[in-house]
Structure formats: structure tokens, C-alpha cells
Design goal:
By secondary structure, the chain is an alpha/beta fold. Helix content is about 30%, strand content about 30%. It has a 6-stranded mixed beta sheet with strand order 6-7-8-3-9-10, with helices on both faces. A 4-stranded antiparallel beta sheet has the order 2-1-4-5, with helices on one face. Strand 7, helix 6 and strand 8 form a beta-alpha-beta unit. The longest helix is centred in the middle third of the chain and has 15 residues. It is globular and about 55 Å long.
Length: about 270
């Protein structure tokens, strides 16, 4: 059995199936991107896996079945980061990051001095340690996402489920975020499944790509191994006619570039 296994996952809303018999496996040590058109079921899949939505099917991590676990135990294994944090309290950036330790603390236990040092270090890694005592509510959306990333980095879970974590970040911080997540994955049996909005970011920074189409897994790609034609065929149902190119950067590394092809003569971009 694989490290993380999803088998026969089905989810419906108001009599309509959103996910139908979704099955796939993940291995630790890397980031798997989840791509799909709006309404394809990306957010639904993440919420079902972490127990927020009722569903049929079974999800396991390192042999542990997630269904039926207490919320506290589930949070110790699996972390879910939504598109918006939902934090409305006027608390400091440091206190937000310290929330990442909550699954490891008893009801009235306070974070230790060591935990506070780890939280400050995580803020340093996302470039916000100098603002640790400022109010979280006063940040821009992109800065808030960086704080939530810092909170993620101090967590002790082994599987992270991220819902478009790059949506409010500029290009520099998008790549920095994926770099930090790769480092996190390398620290033991850990893995990330991230629904991403930017396909080019996914192709260049993630080990694998799952493509969702109309509630099913339509393709599973390995960008470093699969042919351009194979990846184009898997992505065109979502993005329309595209062309993928392998290009060398000025530093000699290989990058995938996705070009959108004109679909009609009326396009004049």
C-alpha cells in the first residue's frame, strides 16, 4: 500500500455528485499539484480528505484510516489550509503561527519557549519576523497567506492539503512558498497535495500533477518524465489548445513553458 491512499471517494451536494469514484496514491517527500477547471471538485476533494465534508470511500495516511478519527487526532496527521484563513481576531502574527502547535498541546497548555522560537524562525523564513507583534488583520491578503504558510511549517502533521495557497502571492513569493514546502517535505515522511491555480507553477515546482475533470481523476502526470505531447493532451480539456515547451534558463536549469493557442480568428492579443 502507498503512503497516502484515496480509494473510491465520492462526494455529492443536494443530490448532485461532485466527485465520482476518485482514487489515487501519494508518496512522501514531494508536492503533488491538483489542477482542474473551476467546479471540477478540487476544493471538495481536499475537504473530504481532511474530514470536513461527509463522503464515501476511504483515505489512509501511513496505514492510518482517516475516517472516524477524532478532530484532534486527524489534525495531528493531516493539515488543511483553505484559500482564506477565516481568522477575524485582532491577534499578532506570532500568535497565529503558534496556532500550528495546537494539535500537540493539551486544553490549557501554553506553547513552550522552544515553540515560540520555532514560530519566530518560521516567520523569518517567510520574511515577516520583523512584524511578529503586529496585528494579523492589518496585513494584505498575500502577507496573510505567508503567515499561514509559516503556521503550516511549524505543524507536526505528515500530510498537508492546500487550497490555492498561491492565489494572493506575487511571482517571487509563489516560488518561495513552493521551495519552503519542498524543504518541509524532505524532513521525514511528509507530503503535500496542493490545488494550484497556476499550471505553469505546478509543472515546474511539483513532483506530480493530478488532473481533475468533471469530478474524476482524468490524468496523473510526472512533469520531469512525461512527454510534452502526453501532458498537452491531459491539460487541453481544462485550458483549451496549448503548447508546452522545454526551455533552458540563463542558469542552465530546464523550465516548462505553457503557451495558450488562439482558438478563433477573432483573437487579437
Amino acid at each position: 500500500m502507498s503512503w497516502t491512499q484515496v480509494e473510491g471517494l465520492c462526494v455529492g451536494y443536494r443530490g448532485r455528485r461532485v466527485l465520482e469514484d476518485v482514487s489515487f496514491a501519494l508518496e512522501p517527500g514531494g508536492i503533488t499539484a491538483l489542477l482542474g477547471a473551476n467546479g471540477s471538485g478540487k476544493t471538495t476533494l481536499l475537504k473530504a480528505m481532511c474530514g470536513i465534508l461527509p463522503h464515501q470511500g476511504v483515505c489512509t495516511v501511513a496505514g492510518q484510516v482517516l475516517e472516524g478519527l477524532s478532530p484532534r487526532r486527524l489534525a495531528q496527521i493531516c493539515g488543511y489550509i483553505p484559500q482564506r484563513s477565516g481568522i477575524a481576531l485582532d491577534i499578532s502574527l506570532l500568535d497565529v503561527v503558534l496556532m500550528g502547535f495546537n494539535p500537540s498541546l493539551s486544553l490549557l497548555q501554553r506553547p513552550s519557549r522552544g515553540m515560540r522560537r520555532q514560530a519566530v524562525d518560521a516567520l523569518e523564513r517567510v520574511g515577516l519576523a520583523h512584524r511578529a507583534q503586529e496585528s494579523y488583520r492589518r496585513l494584505s491578503e498575500g502577507e496573510k497567506q505567508r503567515v499561514i504558510l509559516a503556521r503550516t511549517l511549524v505543524g507536526k502533521g505528515s500530510l498537508l492539503l492546500l487550497d490555492e495557497p498561491e492565489s494572493a502571492l506575487d511571482v517571487h513569493h509563489r516560488y518561495q512558498m513552493l521551495h519552503l514546502l519542498r524543504q518541509w517535505c524532505a524532513q521525514g515522511e511528509r507530503g503535500v497535495l496542493a490545488a494550484l491555480h497556476d499550471p505553469q507553477l505546478a509543472l515546474n515546482t511539483c513532483h506530480r500533477v493530478l488532473v481533475l475533470d468533471r469530478g474524476r481523476v482524468a490524468a496523473q502526470l510526472c512533469p520531469r518524465r512525461d512527454s510534452l505531447a502526453e501532458m498537452e493532451g491531459a491539460l487541453e480539456p481544462i485550458y483549451g489548445p496549448i503548447q508546452l515547451l522545454r526551455c533552458a534558463s540563463r542558469w542552465g536549469s530546464e523550465e516548462l513553458v505553457m503557451l495558450k493557442q488562439r482558438e478563433a480568428a477573432g483573437w487579437n492579443l
